[in-house]
Amino acid sequence: MNANDVRAKFLARMEKSGHQVIAPAVLRLENDPTTLFTGSGMQPLMPYLLGQKHPDGTRLTDSQPCFRSQDIEDVGDNRHTTFFEMLGNWSLGDYFKEFQIRQFFAFLTEDIGLDPSRIYVTCFVGDGAHNIPRDNEAAEIWQKVFKEAGVSAEIAEIGSAEDGDKRGIKPGERIFFYNDKENWWSRAGGIASTPIGDPCGPDSEVFYDYGAEFHDPKFGEPHPASDSGRFVEIGNQVFMQYRRLPDGSFEELQQKNVDFGGGLERLAAAAIDSSDIFKISILQPIISRLEELSHQDYSDHKPEMQIIADHLRASVFLVAQGLTPSNKEHGYVLRRLCRRAILKAQKLGLRDNFFAELVPIVAAIYQSAYPEISQNQAEIIAILSREESQFNKTLTRGLREFEKVATGVLTGAQIFTLHDTYGFPRELSLEVAAERGIKLTENWQEEFDAKVAEQKMRSQTATKGMFKGGLADSSDLTVKYHTAAHLLGAALNQVLKTDAAQKGANITAERLRFDFAANEKLTPEQITEVENLVNGWLEADLPVTHAEYATDYAFDTLHAHGVFRDKYGDKVLVYTIGGDTSQDPVVNTDAKPIISREICGGPHVNHTGEILESGHFKITKEESSSAGVRRIKAVLAK
Fold first, then answer.
1. Fewer Cβ atoms within 10 A, N terminus or C terminus of the chain?
2. What is the pLDDT of residue 629?
3. How far lies 449's CA from each of 13, 348, 455, in Å?
4. Residue 39: φ, ψ to 5°
5. Which domains does the chain have, with CATH numbers?
């Protein structure tokens, strides 16, 4: 069974049980304050898990591409990747624990053929301090399910993962109780950090046992939550049944949700009984091509080939959605992926144009599930090959300079100079130093940070007084176009019924240019609908208000749109278009809906009707900007 079969069987089972298959969300995020990329299947559905009604009903399912940049350093073993697909299903106040547990177990044992005797599960042990009981309900359901499959399922109360490392497992044990570090879900982690008002609850994780030979004794005794390689998590069922109150206590929710997520790659590996996910059908062809190109065996160069295969696949998906390598935020993550892959490729003797050899492999793998990769293959190759060529030059020069400064010990100041002057990334300096046994000074991080701070101060001094935010100036017309750009973004979200995340803007006194995430050209009807929405809001003469709020309040309570939450200070300026201005903050009502609420430095008009003095909103051009990004040019015309 290949990975495409696993994906298809999962979605088919979900559809048969009344779930609506929904389209996956974009991989690259622009307006999420907490992260740069979609990192889980649940993430795009958070508004509906928090109570908003979903247009497709109460039973949903999908296969969501995900990217987790925090896992970059973990790639290079048999089970970690930065990019993966998350198979998911959700019950929004519909079914609960028993239906969920039974349908997932049936999928594992009936659809993809896993041996039930190699499946292990975990449940929440409870928390007396917060009056949350042990999740006996889930454990008892699991016992029934295993008994029906002819498998013994004794219960073990572990507590913490550290306790499990000391205790291990005993014969017959299959259901394990852990504390909130392992088996509690909230948006902020454990019980004590659960945000006020948020839904939360216990979860039940499912593991596949690859056998005692895959256990590494350095992690202690084997048990499901161990960091060893014997037990690999293949799915997690979150039961959202509580809400945290202002006094810190928890109450049961009347409407309980289920949030399930299972990694496609790990499920596909279990289906072929491979402890190495790089041997599944959507990764093995990349490895095979690397063996051909390098004339090396995978078994002799696993870390290098695993890193290349993962980073290449992730890079292809990111570029297909409009991202290009750069030194800022999303683009920097992509650049880091590319450069790590290039560095590992050089170890295999691959020094020229190897991206161009591998991109078609990825495109062929995902031809049916993600045809946009094949459709944009030429552009993807061009972007990645350009990065490869540039970095090869940087690498040659950087390594030459590295040899000059790293004469036994490496300082933070030297690492900064290599990065700032020669374009040699800090991460590569650290990797090369580790590979060559070069020690770092004890306070290298402080030295590096001090140099970064110095450079930042110089940059701020140099740019003091410059107007920011994509505006050419602060003239009357430019300010009008700026407010119109906010309305355009809101209109695109309504018409496209998806997150048409802003990718960039350039605003002058003559026109506005607005880049946004979209894979398809807008139809003439959609363009007309966008124009009509914007002009309707102009004619409604909606109020444009602004106020300063605490950053956490702006994001968590007002749900203002803004990018890179961790880059803001303690307070932010929030601009609101529409809403009931008699209340502070401005609130949304049926009679006075909020059209746009953005974290923005301004300036804006005071009422949208002021824009009409210069004309109605008219889109003059809609075109492709790059893969996964469209561009609109618009004017105000009388």
1. C
2. 85
3. 52, 33, 10
4. -110, 0
5. 3-275 (3.30.930.10), 283-396 (no CATH), 406-466 (no CATH), 476-637 (3.30.980.10)
